[in-house]
Specification:
Blueprint (H helix, E strand, L loop, with lengths): L13 H16 L14 H11 L11 E6 L2 H22 L2 H6 L11 H4 L2 E8 L1 E3 L5 E3 L3 H19 L2 E5 L5 H6 L6 E10 L15 H4 L4
Antiparallel strand pairs: 1-2, 2-6, 3-4, 5-6
Bound molecules: 3-iodo-tyrosine (IYR).
């Protein structure tokens, strides 16, 4: 039987909502994906609070099909770099078709991933495809990709809001992360988030976001 409780919701006035939405846009418009990180340490509490925020994301049947592996250990980061660069070398040299390589040109990326070792924290987001109940029965999860995608977006936004730079990195394939981090077979690596301060004199690609009229129609 479903059980309902009263909603806690503070209504805001329209001017207040408009002001907040403008401020939030301005804050998000400042976000840039960073590929050059400083090794300066960051407060771990920010990582934990941001993951707590991500854990509040909506999910299919509220199954919360995510797991966040936080890596600060230098030896583990080095292993991740080594394994990721092996996959990336295969990607750049053999796997990626020419049009994909061309699409990546503006970003100047290649198979070298020093940030996996330099940045103080890596967060590996896992998608839980299913869980196992106490009777060892498989419990199917629903809309796991959508759910973990929303949670990852919240995490990225929370980290930016706190003043950290991030990089969404998706070495492909990412199975080596399950192995290195000892994660069970019902979890699939979804995204690797690199977190820290930008390196001094960090530069970013000169790219533009689409205008509102290119991404929205009001019917
Ligand atoms: N995973 C590779 C390639 C790459 C692919 C896309 I799509 C990007 O937006 C950026 C990079 C790498 O990390 O270099």
């Amino acid at each position: 039987m479903a059980k309902f409780i009263p909603l806690k919701f503070k209504n805001s006035s329209p001017p207040e909502m408009i002001r907040k939405s403008e401020e939030f846009f301005e804050e998000l418009a400042q976000r840039r994906t960073v590929r050059f990180f400083s090794d300066k340490s960051i407060p771990e509490e920010v990582i934990i609070n941001s993951i707590k925020a991500a854990g509040r994301a909506p999910s299919g049947a509220n199954f919360q099909p995510w797991f966040f592996a936080v890596v600060k250990d230098q030896a583990i980061k080095s292993r991740i770099r080594l394994a990721a660069e092996k996959e990336e070398r295969a990607f750049y040299n053999n796997v990626a078709p020419p049009e994909w390589i061309k699409a990546l040109e503006p970003f100047g990326t290649n198979s070298e991933k020093p940030f996996l070792e330099n940045a103080p924290y890596l967060i590996v987001v896992f998608e839980r495809k299913h869980s196992v109940d106490k009777n060892n029965h498989i419990v199917k999860h629903y809309y796991t990709k959508e759910s973990v995608g929303i949670a990852a977006g919240v995490l990225l936004t929370a980290l930016h809001h706190s003043g950290l730079a991030t990089l969404t990195h998706t070495p492909s394939p990412m199975n080596f992360l399950s192995e290195i981090l000892n994660r069970p077979p019902n979890e699939k690596p979804f995204l690797l988030l690199v977190c820290g301060y930008p390196a001094e004199n960090c530069t970013v690609p000169d790219i533009k976001k689409k205008n509102i009229d290119e991404i929205m129609t009001i019917y």
